[in-house]
Amino acid sequence: MTDTSLAPASSTPGSRSRSLLELDPHTKKRNAAEARFRVYGIVAIGIGLFFLVALLYSILSNGLTAFYQTSVTLEVPLVQTEIDAAEKSVVKTSKYRDMIAAVLVQKMEQAGVATSMKSKELLQILSAGAPGTLRDHVLSHPEQIGTTATFDFLASSRVDGYLKGRVTRAALAEDKNLSAAHLDIIDQLVEKGIVEKGFNWNFIFGSDASDSRPEQAGIGVSMIGSLFMMLVVLVLSLPIGVAASIYLEEFAPKNRWTDLIEVNISNLAAVPSIVFGILGLSAFIQFAHLPQSAPLVGGLVLTLMTLPTIIISTRASLKSVPPSIRDAALGIGASKMQSVFHHVLPLAMPGILTGTIIGLAQALGETAPLLLIGMVGFIASEFPDGVFDGFLAPNSAMPAQIYEWAKRADPAFYERAWGGIIILLVFLMIMNIVAIILRRRFERRW
Amino acid sequence: MALSLLLLCLLALSALAYVLARGKAFKSAGGDIRLLHSLPGYYGWNGALTVALPSLVVLVLWLGIQPAVIDNSVASMISDHAAGESNVGLVMSDVRRIADGLDLAVESGAMTEDYAGSIHADLTDVRGRLGSLGVALGSEVTQEKMRAAQAYRSMTATGNWMRTGVVLLLAFVGLAISYRRADKDFRARNFVEQVVKGILISAALIAILTTVGIVFSLIFNTVEFFKLYPATDFFFGTTWTPSFGGGSDLGILPLMWATLYISFIALAVAVPVGLFAAIYLSEYAGSTVRSVAKPLLEVLAGIPTIVYGLFALLTVGPLLVEAFGEGGILGLGWMKGGTAVMTAGLVMGIMLIPFVSSLSDDIINAVPQAMRDGSLGLGATHSETVKQVILPAALPGIVGAILLAASRAIGETMIVVLGAGAAARLSLNPFDAMTTVTAKIVSQLTGDADFASPEALVAFALGMTLFVITLGLNIFALYIVRKYREQYD
Lengths: 446, 489
Known about the structure:
The complex is a heterodimer of chains A (446) and B (489).
Chain A: H1 3-10, H2 25-63, E1 68-77, H3 80-88, H4 92-111, H5 119-122, H6 130-140, E2 148-154, H7 157-163, H8 180-192, E3 195-199, H9 201-205, H10 220-251, H11 256-268, H12 273-287, H13 295-319, H14 323-331, H15 336-365, H16 368-372, H17 386-392, H18 398-407, H19 412-442
Antiparallel strand pairs in A: 1-2, 1-3
Chain B: H1 3-28, H2 40-75, H3 80-84, H4 88-108, H5 113-118, H6 126-132, H7 143-181, H8 188-228, H9 231-236, E1 240-241, E2 249-250, H10 253-284, H11 287-302, H12 305-324, H13 341-366, H14 369-377, H15 382-411, H16 414-419, H17 437-445, H18 454-488
Antiparallel strand pairs in B: 1-2
């Protein structure tokens, strides 16, 4: 028990005269190893956090611009005779295009922007969807005919990209959609306040647009698709998951069958999501002939994927309700079923809801199985009419829409994809915060 | 009767049964609740469940089976020479579209029901007429397809009528039975609880059913694939060149190689970082550092894989090209494009860091404190304790965690779809673009190929391989983790 008896064991012979306060080389080495080991740990955490920051930085720096969109403000006189003529022609938007072109040329003259470009070439500044916008407005507001209406037409994606710094003059050399001469005009129009950037509501609430019109693409329709899918997941996976966990936790006898089910569930939780996609494709679409790309089918597949997560967390929260609660209920004459449904389940509910929300958040971000059931391509183009259509009409989901944009050739879609990710992450963040608040506020420690 | 109306009917009938059964039981006790065996609500539930449950089960089964039965019998109507040029699946989808078109035509009043049932394709321009209603048909409507479509429609109509009849009959029988049974001596609570327990059991069985569904859907289509393509060529073929015109080489080896290569790189990133992070967090960090760093690391686990995919494609890929590509900073010229094994592996590694770290954290924390105290008491430094006592004790669990991470990496889809490239090749260079099993499942099944061609069916064989590998890894890992946990409990 004395220090002297330990001293020979810890120091080499011959260093006996050394003071305990002076470190010998061996101890120094050991301490250095200790310090190094500590640094490794800090570096590892640093690397992890660095990646997190890098990821968030690249999402925000690339995606925030999607929320702003360049538009051109023009006052278009709506003349009855011109509109009649336009509605009579075969390609209806072409006359509207001429109307816009005339206004654009006039506006530029007024602003003192000189150009030798023909009006058709000049129109490449605007989105190809501008005539359609004008026509839709005229048809839905016939009372405005005869007056002059002010429009914010979307600028084409190249112009938008130029103002956001994505498109350079050098890059336009081989571009047939826009030339450097256009950019000179744009610079002047920006000075005059005719071309402006505004908040892009259409991105949040609009529908997807075809390959050639990235400036019109929005995530709104696929958001609705995700919403309907999450409804299916919630309505199916919560009751089924809770019922299964109640059985396994409270009623199941300890035998081989119960073991089988339990092993099964923990394995299902680790099956790759793409395999669930294959199951959905062959069971729901090939066999049961449910419609392809429907949110209902997506919801069913995601339900099967989410069930294990919900069952595992529900069982944990059922387990955390102390047995005394059950015993007390049984003691005053409740049946086993009554004790579970009237006492244990309500007490476990906050935990169950937390688990469900986290499961839903996982399902919301899942992409791979949705691709297999056909939620890919240009399908989120129209809002569903009505609830029934919302479940059965082809639609995309937010992550599938992001994938779709990431795949397209025009780099203008990448900005949309990053922007879509911001929206997706905002939803996930809200869900997780709700889960955390639920847990903090209602979870009891027994 | 429309499905929604039928469901409403069922709902109304069960509500009626609830009220009737409850009322009758109450009356039989003379209004004295003490004479009832169970609480009055149980009598009502007894009624509602007897009405709703059997009819709902039958309805669901019917909905699942009817289309398959009708498809089979209509498919047998189509002669071989009609199917000869294409195949039965394609013809059937045509038939279904014609039938839908006729439905639409009748609904919109463009045709009468009789006319739609007797219309003759050789005499009328059906395609033009349906086209004017907005139903686009791919190929010309032959009389044979027309007959099949009409048979399809009439069988569906009959089926729907029978469905309504059977379901409603069952509901009424249930109503009668439960009404007769409702009596003050009837053990309503026991009955209801038995039924509820049955419902609970069937919910638990859905997990089994899912597994069975996965296995069956994989096996059936895989067997189908091996009928068209020899299994040895699939498992040992070294080239992957699918062409939808036929004559494609579908060897899994290049895909498997890329899958394992990417997983290896991912683990090489995730395991050291995750493990050291876990060790630091559980052994060194104070409670404040822990409470900040741990949730932040776990944020990485909550980010959807599509985000990592985009990160690989648009951020990490171009950065790597700048470093390792031709004319890059390092002047190596190893990398030709942004998508490569390295890109996908690196990003997947980032995704797996929190997975490895939180699993290892749990396992390290499960090592009893007495072992640490013993080691520290003998004069070992903290790091020596970790290296020589805690890690050996936790090793089986950590190996289990790494295996689980590996199974994750092998099954990961979006990162490799976006980040790894599309060409299959056997190469040692980690900066080459390669493609994996999961990426090919996606590309083979999202094309326009029909499901009978080996080029589409191969996806199921790939899925089967993937399922078997990940399942094996998972079972092995869970076995190790579980076995280890029992040691210290």
